[in-house]
Amino acid sequence: MVTELFPLTLKGAETSRRGKRLVGPVDLSLDGQGLCVVMGPNGSGKTTLLRLMHGTARLTGGSVTWACDTDVARHHQAFVFQRPVVLRRTVEENLTYPLRLRGTSRKVAQVAARDWAERVGLGPHLTRRAMVLSGGEQQKLAIARALITEPALVFLDEPTASLDGRAMREIEAILLRAKADGTRLILSTHDMGQARRIADEVVFILGGTVQETGPAAAFFDGPKTPQARAFLNGDIVE
Amino acid sequence: MGGSAIVDLWEGLRHAFWLVVTFDAALAEIALRSLRVTLSALVIACLIALPLAAMLAVRRFRWRRATIAMLNALMGLPPVVVGLIVYIFLSRSGPLGALGLLFTPTAMIIAQVIIIVPLIASIAHQSLRELWAEYHDLLISMNVTQMQKMRTLLWDARRALLTAALAGFGRGIGEVGAIMIVGGNIDNATRVLTTAIALETGKGQFALALALGFILIALALGVNLMIHWIGQTERDSRW
Known about the structure:
With 238 residues, chain A is of the alpha/beta class. In chain A, 37% of the residues lie in helices and 25% in strands. Chain A is globular and about 55 Å long.
């Protein structure tokens, strides 16, 4: 059964820590189509905005609402971090973990784990300890672990930030397959090339506030704000 | 003087060897009682200390810092004082006197549990806290319950927790002050290796005391090695 999460609506959403506003106020509405890229330079608030949407950053003002109940929405989401977090277990046990948490039987979870390990190219590493995998392999494992529960939406926080070209290409291929299978993806990056390659929709953020949103083609062909234009031109924007 | 000490050591080693080779029945009984008391105390202490350590790692509550500080302070709890307090509680006029536990192995187990719980909990908490820092964002994003967090941490840190348990075992098996008070060092009832060593030393039987000491060390080393082997530590990778 497909749970309808979208539209995701942020109204005056903001988060602050020790009196300092990190992100917001953000007014934004995202529908449930394709791959949305949150773009902006380092420190612009991409990660915090993703966490705010996901519900792991404390909302100190405004609201974040889904088409369904927030708890139901959280249940149908996953989050992939910039630095892959792998459990101190084998690749297979990492993949079965979220399924076992949801009460899936060990056998069914193992079948799904083998399937996903093959899909992301980790089939031969199933019994290896996840900590000994390379950075790219760990990130593929983290993505497979996020996708294995068939979430409606996956947040990815700069998933290829510290990886080489080959690992980046492989991960982008996995994400595009997930998108084709109907998973909504919201990914943050400051890599313009990557955004151009995979984005259907762009949210441009700077200084904690959303400057511009819209279809990727329109954004890259004719950015509306001077900040977005400067960013796309490769100028230093702060 | 120095020569005499070496002779005593050598005599002790020789005596220990013969006690083991001839399978001395009294020694076997004392050694087995030592193991039974300490391993029982260890199991009970782990059942208390490990969930407590996991809870302290993942939950935020008002007295959390104070509890951690208290556990760390209690690691240095003087065993004799523990023995005295347990003695008062279990003595006939004490609140638990009706149970008739004083001068039984159960009383010795209770004393050892009190001594080793803070040690195991503190060491375990250090390991679990580090692992929690590593897992925090992932487990929060997965929306797992507090119980699932604790179980995940305890399982994934199991090899580090083994070290905590072994530290507890080491403290328990070598303990003499508390169990002397609550056990009474009664022959065929509550005498264990450490209290027997104290007794033989008091009697001037240094060779026998040393022999028992060597057997105690061998026992502690043997259990440590066996637990490491069962736990498969130091294999495959860094954990």
